[in-house]
Design goal:
- The chain is mainly beta.
- The chain has a single domain, classed as Neuraminidase (6 Propeller), CATH 2.120.10.
- 2% of the residues lie in helices and 34% in strands.
- The chain contains two helices and 25 strands.
- The strands form six sheets. Strands 18, 19, 20, 21 and 22 form a five-stranded antiparallel β-sheet that branches.
- The longest helix is centred in the N-terminal third of the chain and has 5 residues.
- It starts with a helix and ends with a strand.
């Protein structure tokens, strides 16, 4: 076990080719590399004393029988909203009983490949405005809409007609990004992919391959790094996770192509290198990741912050990674949990304190669904 943990992020198999999709992979091998001088393979500075090892306990299965779950949004007062990528629907899950109620269908969703109904987020003013935000792939682009949620209406009719706040995000069969989250500043953040056109990630005029920051109405947020622009950071291949730590710093994972998946600390205006850099390249003008993994062992989607660590769900890697942090540095070698036990893992969100909600992703066309798939699990972590 000790040897495994010490080598956890120098992993031995490479991942996908440009034709296979970032979550599938073709099994090609690649030589190790990319660690920075003076650091361990994980990115932790040598000589640091690692903290006590973490742990994960699956407390219970909250719900099962979900179809291609992608976004997960806790509601104030209880319950989880879950988006179905392929069905284009949102269901409410009662976290006490596991009962599922269809809230409604988002019109205009064109599910294909990795596209469909992706991230969802609840307004920070939900108790007064009852707004739910969704990121989805249409027939022509990716877009963000908001809808009023009224649980007093009949089942399946509880969402208002969508109000489109942003359109024109590049779409593709793969690399659609799709995560939505409200930050501590009450601004809406969205992660986008570059639809297999790497140069879009370096084009400040394109919405592809970026992390965007906007007002709840879809306008460029005050204080954005580029004038009159939604772009918060650039040079991303395909980000599907956003989370803030206890100091309100933004973290995001990144799908690599053939060599390195990444965990990045996001700086306003930061350029994360794609397609010119993958992993810790040490190139001027690009921000290096804080940690990196071989793509066969991660293919990261959702992340959450809890108990002093980032928790990162792996699709192809079929595991949950714990990345302990000390300020802006990784303080000990990342640890893998649940490896192969529940299959592909898509989304992880904080349930408060030492608890997380975690969704499996076996019904997305790349898994091997078993009885009860897909599931939401409640975890206790430290």
């Amino acid at each position: 076990m000790t040897a495994f943990l010490a080598a956890a992020v120098l992993l031995v198999t490479a991942g996908c080719s440009a034709g296979g999709g970032e979550e599938a992979g073709d099994g090609a091998s690649a030589a190790p590399g990319g660690t920075r001088s003076g650091a361990s393979p994980s990115g932790r500075a040598t000589g640091d004393a690692p903290p006590a090892k973490g742990s994960v306990k699956v407390v219970r299965t909250v719900a099962e029988g979900l179809d291609s779950p992608w976004g997960l949004a806790p509601l104030p007062g209880g319950g989880l909203l879950v988006s179905s990528r392929d069905e284009g629907t949102i269901v409410l899950v009662d976290t006490e009983t596991g009962e599922k109620t269809e809230v409604g269908e988002v019109p205009g969703v064109a599910a294909a490949g990795e596209g469909g109904l992706l991230g969802i987020a609840v307004s920070p003013e939900y108790t007064s405005d009852h707004m739910v935000y969704a990121y989805f792939t249409s027939g022509s682009d990716n877009r963000i809409v908001r809808m009023r949620y009224d649980p007093e209406q009949p089942e399946g009719e509880q969402l208002s007609a969508p109000d489109t706040i942003l359109r024109g995000i590049p779409k593709g069969t793969n690399h659609n990004g799709g995560r939505l989250a409200f930050g501590p500043d009450k601004m809406l953040y969205a992660s986008t992919g570059e639809r297999y056109e790497g140069r879009l990630a370096q084009d400040k005029e394109s919405l592809g391959g970026k992390i965007l920051r906007m007002t709840p109405e879809g306008e460029p947020a005050p204080g954005n790094p580029f004038d009159d622009s939604l772009v918060y950071s650039l040079g991303h291949r395909n980000v599907q996770g956003l989370a803030w730590d206890g100091e309100q710093r933004l973290w995001a994972p990144e799908f690599g192509q053939d060599t390195w998946d990444e965990l990045n600390l996001i700086e306003p205006g930061g350029n994360y290198g794609w397609p010119d850099a993958e992993g810790k390249a040490g190139e001027s003008g690009f921000v290096d990741p804080v940690a990196q993994w071989r793509v066969a062992d991660a293919s990261p989607s959702g992340i959450a912050f809890a108990q002093g660590s980032v928790w990162m769900a792996g699709l192809r890697g079929e595991r949950l990674w714990r990345i302990p942090l000390e300020s802006t540095e990784v303080s000990a070698d990342p640890q893998a949990f649940l490896t192969g036990e529940y299959g592909r893992l898509r989304t992880v969100v904080s349930a408060g304190g030492d608890r997380l909600w975690l969704t499996t992703s076996e019904t997305d066309g790349r898994g091997s669904p078993g009885d009860g798939d897909d599931k939401i699990l409640e975890l206790q972590v430290k």
